[in-house]
Amino acid sequence: MDTLNHLLYLLTLKTMTIPTVKTTLAQNIFRVLLGLFMLYAGIGHMTFLRAEFQAQVPDWVPFSKDFVVLASGVAEILLGIAMVIGTNYKVYTGLALGLFFIAVFPGNIAQYVNGIDSFGLDTDTKRLVRLFFQPLLIAWALWSSGAYKYWIKQKT
Prior knowledge:
The chain is mainly α. Helices cover 73% and strands 0% of the residues. The protein contains 8 helices and no strands.
């Protein structure tokens, strides 16, 4: 529970100082690459990949599939921009993106459980393998932004 409280504290921006973490050149390159990927995905949500993303929205979500896809597309665009140019807030952005990846994971699970073909994932094996990439995306967001390093530093 202490870890959750600390994460919530970070996300509410209740400090006067912005957390800074020195990141390596490799982390910065991967942060920008992830940001560009998020921009591409966000634009795809609103345009040429809209139907593919709608197929991943679980039926139990209490909003229209189109609204969910458009809203998540906006979030992805904003997070992508922040990952690319928001270096002063990269720790917060990394945390937010990691949480975003957790929030959309039920869509990936629903795609697997319901056998939904989308994005070339047309077999159960492909859909199952896709599930294992979500933790990698979370780790990528936290590592490349320095959020993981900052979080560990705060715990010690």
